Amino acid sequence: MLEARLAECLTRYQPLHEEFRKGKPSQADHFIAAGLPELIGPYTMLCSFTHSDLTALALRHQGERGMILRAPVDYDVLFLVLSLATYSLLHAARALEAVVYLPEGSYDLHIARLEALQDELMVLRPELPEADQANESRPEAASAQ
Questions:
Q1: C-alpha torsion angle, residues 98, 104, 108, 114 (rounded to 10)
Q2: CB 56, CB 49: distance < 8 Å
Q3: Which of 56, 106, 118, 137 could share a disulfide with 102, CB 3.0–4.6 Å?
Q4: Contact of 61 with 53, CB cutoff 8 Å
Q5: What percentage of residues in the chain have a pLDDT greater than 70?
Q6: Cα separation, 121 vs 83, whole angstroms
C-alpha cells in the first residue's frame, strides 16, 4: 500500500519538481560562484538541523524508548552545530573584505576578534574518549600522547 502511494505521488509531483528546478542553480552553485565552496558542507549540515530533516530530528529528539519532544541536546551535538555556525560566519566575514569598504584597519580588527572568539570556542570542544584519541588528527592531541 505504501509503495503504491509513493509511486502515485512520484508520478504526480516529480514532473513539477523537475520543471521548478529547470535552469535554476543549486545552493552549491551559489557557494561556488561566491568563492566559498568550503561552506557547502557546513551549510548543508546546519540546514538539516534547522529544517525538518528526519535524521537530524531523530538525533535531537530520540530517547532511549522513543521520540521525546524537546529532548535535551547532547553537548557534543550542540558543540558541532555551534562550531559549524561560527566556522561559516568567520569564512563568510573573510569574504567581505573584497566587497565592502571599512575604515583603515577596521576589517582586520573585526576579523581578529572573530578569530579570537573562534579560538575560545574551540577550547570548549568535547574531549574524545581514550580509544578515539589515538586516531585524532588535532596536533595538540597528537603531541599530548
A1: -90
A2: yes
A3: 106
A4: no
A5: 74
A6: 7
The residue type of 86 is: T
Q: What is the pLDDT of residues 18-62, one digit of tens each?
A: 888 788 888 899 989 988 899 898 888 888 777 666 666 666 666
Which residue matches cell numbers 525538518? 52
Three cell numbers written together for 64: 532511549
pTM listed for this prediction: 0.59
Give the separation between CA 90 and CA 88, rounded to whole angstroms: 5
Question: What are the b/e assignments for 27-46, b being 16+ CB within 10 Å?
Answer: eeeebeeeebeebbebbebb
